[in-house]
Design brief:
By secondary structure, the protein is mainly alpha-helical. Helices cover 57% and strands 0% of the residues. It contains four helices and no strands. The model has no long low-confidence stretch (mean pLDDT 79).
Length: 76
């Protein structure tokens, strides 16, 4: 199996450590917490954010330089 190295903030690392179950690898943890999102159709997330929250998130994504076209192609 191929391995990848990820750089995350100390805050993100601490958050992951808190979610990790005893004996669970970080790979297993990430698969567990992202599996919830991957299994749901995108339409199930519609309406979860209030308009002002959505607008704030959209502005943040645009200003972050994230490749939005890649996000739009993601299958959640």
């Amino acid at each position: 199996m191929a391995h990848k190295t990820l750089t995350i903030s100390e805050e993100a690392y601490k958050s992951l450590v808190q979610l990790k179950k005893e004996g669970e690898s970080f790979t297993a943890l990430i698969n567990r917490i992202t599996g919830i999102v991957r299994k749901k159709p995108l339409k199930e997330f519609a309406g979860r954010l209030k308009d002002d929250e959505f607008e704030k998130a959209a502005i943040e994504i645009r200003s972050s330089g994230t490749d939005i076209s890649r996000l739009e192609r993601a299958k959640l």
